[in-house]
C-alpha cells in the first residue's frame, strides 16, 4: 500500500461535507502513482469513484495533464502551415449517432492541416464504436505502428493516431478499472483535453455537460494552453450536430474566450442526426462520401469539415469552408489522402514486422 497515496485518497474520499480538492501538484502526484501502479488496485478504484462523486476541479485536471505529459507519449513537433489540430473525442466511442471525425480529419489533411487523434479499443462503460475501428475499416492500421512511425506519417501525410494500448501502456493499464467501478472516472474528462503532440497545437475538445467546458477553461488557463475549441458535440465528440444549434467555444492566443452559436439551417445543413449503423455499413457510407457521392453522411461531413477548415485558418469564412470541403471531396483529393496514408502505414508496418 502507498501511504502517500492513502493521504490523497482521504482528501477526495471523505464525503460531501468534508472532502477536499487536491492541489495541482497533489493531483499530478496521485495520477503519477496510479499510472505507475504504485497505488494498490483497491486504492486506485477507490480514488476513481471518490473523485467522480466529488467532481474534479480545473486545478486537479491541470495536475492530471501534467502527469500525462511527464509519463505519456509525445509526437515530436513538425513543420506545418497551420497549428497541428488535435481532435479529442471520448474514448468510449459512439453508440447512437454516426461519427464523421475520420472523414473530417481526412478533409483537413487534404487541405494541409495536420491532424492528430488518439484513443483505444472498445472501452467501458459505454463500449461504443471507437475511432480505431473506423480507421481499420477504412484500411488504416495505426495499431501496427511505433510512435516514431506515427510521427513520420504525420510529418509526411498530415495525419497521426496515438493508440493507447500500444503507445501509452501505462494509461491502458487503468482501463479495466472503468469496468470494475461501473462508471466513467475523471480520466474520461482528462482524455478530452490531452494533447500527445509536443508542438504548437489547436485542441478540439468535445463535451456534453456545460460544467465540463468550464473545467477545460480553468485547467488550460493554469497550463498556459491558449489555442483551443470546445464543442458541445454529438455524444460528447467533436462532431457538430445537424439537428440543433452547435454550441462552440473558441480561444485564440491574445484574445478572450468567445462563444459561437451556429444554426445548421442558416447554412443549408439542417437534418436529423444519422443513427449509428453496423460498422461495415458505416464504412461503406464513408467510402462513398470520400468518392464525393451525395448522401446524408456527405452533408454531415461538409458541415463539420467546412467549420473546421475555417476554424483552423484555411478559409476566411464559413461559406468558403463549406465550398472548399465540397471541392476537396468531389475532385478526389480526400480519397487520395486516404490512399497515401494507407500506403505509408502498410509500408511501415511491413518494416516493423520484419
Automatic annotation (TrEMBL):
NCBIfam families linked to this entry: PRK07394.1 (NF005635)
Pfam families in the cross-refs: Glycos_trans_3N (PF02885), Glycos_transf_3 (PF00591)
Keywords: Amino-acid biosynthesis, Aromatic amino acid biosynthesis, Glycosyltransferase, Transferase
Domain Glycosyl transferase family, chain residue ranges per copy: 101-333
Residue span, Glycosyl transferase family 3 N-terminal domain: 6-70
Stored InterPro entries: Anthranilate_Pribosyl_Tfrase, Glycosyl_Trfase_fam3, Glycosyl_Trfase_fam3_N_dom, Glycosyl_Trfase_fam3_N_dom_sf, Nuc_phospho_transferase
One GO location term (cellular component): cytosol
GO biological processes: L-tryptophan biosynthetic process
Gene3D superfamilies: Nucleoside phosphorylase/phosphoribosyltransferase catalytic domain (3.40.1030.10), Transferase, Pyrimidine Nucleoside Phosphorylase, Chain C (1.20.970.10)
Record protein name field: Anthranilate phosphoribosyltransferase
Molecular-function GO terms, alphabetical: anthranilate phosphoribosyltransferase activity
Amino acid at each position: 500500500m502507498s501511504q502517500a497515496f492513502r493521504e490523497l485518497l482521504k482528501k477526495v474520499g471523505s464525503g460531501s461535507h468534508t472532502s477536499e480538492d487536491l492541489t495541482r501538484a497533489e493531483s499530478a502526484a496521485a495520477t503519477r502513482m496510479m499510472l505507475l501502479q504504485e497505488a494498490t488496485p483497491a486504492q486506485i478504484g477507490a480514488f476513481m469513484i471518490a473523485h467522480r462523486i466529488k467532481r474534479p476541479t480545473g486545478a486537479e485536471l491541470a495536475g492530471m495533464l501534467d502527469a500525462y505529459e511527464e509519463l505519456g507519449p509525445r509526437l515530436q513537433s513538425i513543420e506545418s502551415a497551420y497549428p497541428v489540430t488535435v481532435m479529442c473525442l471520448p474514448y468510449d466511442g459512439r453508440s447512437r449517432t454516426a461519427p464523421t471525425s475520420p472523414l473530417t480529419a481526412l478533409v483537413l489533411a487534404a487541405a494541409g492541416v495536420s491532424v492528430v487523434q488518439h484513443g483505444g479499443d472498445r472501452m467501458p462503460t459505454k463500449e461504443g464504436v471507437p475511432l480505431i475501428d473506423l480507421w481499420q475499416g477504412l484500411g488504416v492500421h495505426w495499431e501496427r505502428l511505433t510512435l516514431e512511425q506515427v510521427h513520420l506519417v504525420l510529418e509526411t501525410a498530415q495525419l497521426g493516431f496515438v493508440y493507447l494500448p500500444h503507445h501509452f501502456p501505462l494509461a491502458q493499464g487503468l482501463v479495466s478499472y472503468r469496468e470494475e467501478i461501473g462508471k466513467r472516472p475523471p480520466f474520461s474528462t482528462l482524455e478530452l483535453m490531452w494533447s500527445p503532440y509536443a508542438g504548437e497545437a489547436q485542441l478540439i475538445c468535445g463535451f456534453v455537460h456545460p460544467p465540463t467546458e468550464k473545467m477545460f477553461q480553468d485547467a488550460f488557463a493554469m497550463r498556459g494552453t491558449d489555442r483551443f475549441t470546445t464543442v458541445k458535440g454529438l455524444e460528447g465528440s467533436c462532431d457538430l450536430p445537424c439537428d440543433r444549434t452547435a454550441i462552440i467555444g473558441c480561444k485564440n492566443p491574445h484574445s478572450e474566450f468567445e462563444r459561437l452559436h451556429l444554426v445548421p439551417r442558416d447554412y443549408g445543413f439542417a437534418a436529423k442526426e444519422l443513427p449509428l449503423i453496423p460498422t461495415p455499413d458505416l464504412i461503406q457510407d464513408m467510402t462513398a462520401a470520400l468518392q464525393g457521392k451525395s448522401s446524408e453522411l456527405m452533408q454531415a461531413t461538409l458541415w463539420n469539415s467546412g467549420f473546421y477548415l475555417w476554424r483552423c485558418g484555411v478559409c476566411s469564412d464559413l461559406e468558403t469552408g463549406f465550398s472548399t470541403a465540397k471541392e476537396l471531396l468531389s475532385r478526389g483529393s480526400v480519397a487520395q489522402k486516404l490512399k497515401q496514408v494507407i500506403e505509408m502505414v502498410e509500408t511501415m508496418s511491413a518494416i516493423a514486422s520484419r
